Amino acid sequence: MIGLGQFFFHNRRAINAQSYVQDVLQAHVVPYTAMHRNLVFQLDNAGAHTARYTQQFLEQSNFQVLPWPALSPDLNPIEQLWDYLQRRLDCQDYRSPNPDDLKHSLRWHWNAIPRHFLQTLVSSM
């Protein structure tokens, strides 16, 4: 599974507040939250997340957002996992513009993640 950040990175699109609201929140998050009530939404302090446009959309849509303090360390283990996968792709000098090639390569690297690495991430929480 490719995370939203990787989707935008792969498609070489800049993420700004408007594209974040339209392409991520409205397209994916709003339909998901309609089916799953009482969710708390977590954002970090990325520019697209903290922009006034995004904040207004979240307020108008009645999202419950977890406060994220400024300069806080990113404690979400998925971020370290994405970094690990990116380093693996960099090691193979991955440059294919084909999305299917990227998906295949990511799946291969995902399945090759050492179990002890995953256990260390979980234990760190």
TrEMBL record:
<dbReference type="InterPro" id="IPR036397">
    <property type="entry name" value="RNaseH_sf"/>
</dbReference>
<feature type="domain" description="Tc1-like transposase DDE">
    <location>
        <begin position="11"/>
        <end position="91"/>
    </location>
</feature>
<protein>
    <submittedName>
        <fullName>Transposable element Tcb1 transposase</fullName>
    </submittedName>
</protein>
<dbReference type="GO" id="GO:0003676">
    <property type="term" value="F:nucleic acid binding"/>
</dbReference>
<dbReference type="InterPro" id="IPR038717">
    <property type="entry name" value="Tc1-like_DDE_dom"/>
</dbReference>
<dbReference type="Pfam" id="PF13358">
    <property type="entry name" value="DDE_3"/>
</dbReference>
